[in-house]
Amino acid sequence: MGTQTWRFDGRGHEDNAQDDELDTLRRDVEARLAQLLAEDGRADLLSLAMRAGTLGAGKRMRPLLMMLVARDLGCTSPALVDIACAVEMVHAASLILDDMPCMDDARLRRGRPAIHVEYGEDLAILSSVALLSRAFCVISAAHAVPPEVRTRLVCTLGETVGTQGLVRGQFLDLHGGARSAGEIAVTNDLKTGVLLGAAVDMAAIVAQADERVVGSLRAFAFAAGQAFQIRDDFQDDPANDSAVTGKDTGKDAGKATFVNTLGHDEARRRLLGHVAEAERHLGNAVGQRQGTRNFMRSLFRQGAAAPRTHERGARSFADAAGARA
C-alpha cells in the first residue's frame, strides 16, 4: 500500500498539531514516572538512584512508541500511560545494568554519570532490580484494562527481560566473539529490537488488534530495532563527542558490530534498508495514521548515524535517516 509522507520544512497546522500531541504525551509520561517513583518520605540513596536512572534526559522512545501505536490503532485507554511507564522502567533498568563495569563498563549515560559511578555498584544493581519489580506491579495494577489483558501484558514484558530477550542479548554481546552478519542481527534484535517489539506488542494487546496488524507491527519493530542499533554503532565512533551523544564513545571497539564487521558503507546501506522496511511495515499496520510515523521520523532526524549538516525536506523517516547517515 502507498505511504503518505510530507516535508519537514514548510510545516503546516497538521504537523504542529502532531508536535503538540507528542509534547503532551511526553509530559504525561514524565509526570507519571515521577509519581510512580515518588520518594514517599524515603529520600534514601536507593530511591534517588532509581529516580536518577529513570527520570534523566531520555528520549522516552519506547513508552511514546507504545502509546502512539495504540492511539493509531484506535485505543485511548487511560491505562496507556501507566503501561508505557512500565516499559520505560524496564528500559532504564537494562541501561543501568548495561553500564556496569562487568558489562559495557560505561561511565556516562544521558549526559550524566552512570548510576554505578554516581551511587556505587551495589546501588546500581539494587535499583535495577527494584525498577523491574516496580514495572510489573504497575501493569498488574492497571485496572482500566481487563484482568486477562493485564496478564498478557505482564507475560509479554517478562519474556522481553529474560533469557529470550534483553538478558540473552547482553550475554551474546559480551561472549559472542567473532560473529557472522546474521548472528550480529540476532544480537541486535535482542539488545534493541526486543523491547521495541514488546512496546508495539503491548500496544496491540491493549488495542485488541488482529493478527495481521500484530505481524506487521512485529516486522516494523524488528526493522526499526536493527536500524537503531546500527545508528548507535555509528555514534560509538571515538571521533564523536560524548558531550553531544550523551554517553561514552569507543565502547564497541573490538566488538562484532555491523560497522566493525562490514565497514561504514555497507552498514549505512543496511541502515537505510532497515528504516525503509520499518516504514513500509508500519504503514501496513496503521494505514495513513501519522502519529507513530511522525514520531519515528523525528527520532531519525534528531539522532541519525554519522551526523553531518542537517538537510531539510525529508519526507519520511527513511529520508530523515538518509539525510544524516
What characteristics describe this protein?
globular; Farnesyl Diphosphate Synthase; 68% helix; disordered N terminus; two-stranded antiparallel ribbon
Explained architecture:
This protein is mainly α. It has a single domain, classed as Farnesyl Diphosphate Synthase (Orthogonal Bundle), CATH 1.10.600. It contains 15 helices and two strands. It has helices spanning 13-36, 45-54, 61-72, 80-98, 115-119, 121-140, 147-161, 166-175, 181-207, 211-235, 242-245, 258-262, 264-286, 291-303, 317-324; strands spanning 108-109, 112-113. Strands 1-2 form a two-stranded antiparallel sheet. A hairpin with a 2-residue loop joins strand 1 (108-109) and strand 2 (112-113). Helix 3 (61-72) runs antiparallel to helix 14 (291-303) and helix 7 (147-161) packs antiparallel against helix 9 (181-207). The longest helix is centred in the middle third of the chain and has 27 residues, at 181-207.
